[in-house]
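Hey,

The postdoc asked me to send both predictions to you directly instead of through the lab channel. I've kept everything plain text so nothing gets mangled by the mail client. Protein one:
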Amino acid sequence: MGLKSLAAKLADYQTRLEDGATCRIRPEHVRKVLDKLRHKQAALMAEIGETDDPDRKARLERKLGVARDHVRRAEWLLDQLS
């Protein structure tokens, strides 16, 4: 699952939270998305370490920043549900 689809899931969960429909959000689903985001983050870090191309490294670092932002959002959402 790519970053875009994981981000879309988080956005949907956040919209539900804002609408007061937290009963429709299962914490285990958020944990599953969070695990996938952490896995993607680790894969990006490994790929950054393997590449020598500066342009590719810059692009991967931007992706890593986006992944980190989404991890923070997922952790915040999970805290709100607890």
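Protein two:
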Amino acid sequence: MLQEKSQKIIKLSLFCILAAIMNILFSNFVFNFLKFPLYVDTVFSAAITFAFGLIPGLATAILSWLIPTIYYSSYGYSFYVLCSIAEVLIICALKPSHEVHQGREDKEKMAAAYASLAARLMVMYILCAAAISTLGGIINYVSDILLESPLPFYSVEDTFKLSLLTSNLPILAVNILSRIQVNIVDRFIVIFGGYFISRGLKKLVQIWTES
């Protein structure tokens, strides 16, 4: 029993490490190759959280931010891991308790189950977009203004900041509002993409465990 539990932990740890690497690779692919300025470096953290719960999700999120933080050597940049942690917490709190299995229920029950799943994912998406926009804006404000440790590169929300700064809004409000346009798009990819990836992960783990 102890050996079986240890093997399970080792396998799950490997999945977390691989998911963290995939987060970084996927984000670089979208940003540098496809030229889409989106923050999609938490898709696989979301997938791990959907599939395996809080602790593996947090481990993946932290691993995904550890490498870029070391690479950029930015003290302020490291605070953005709080956005990933908040996202994992929201997903863990609201994720569906069961999956919809085709062919096991009548059509009306399946339609209701799919509608419930879609609604839950949509609520999760909206909450994540709002929470990460707010938290990211606060972190940006603290890092840039209070700690004087700005990011060492240009980020997509800086474009929106330029227009918002002309409206005489407080700097904190500008930092938050400039992120909403971006997070409305990328959180949709993260939440819905992460959920569907998680279904494949569960099947893969099941096959690996039985082998």
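Summary for protein two, as requested: The mean pLDDT is 84.

Thanks,
C.
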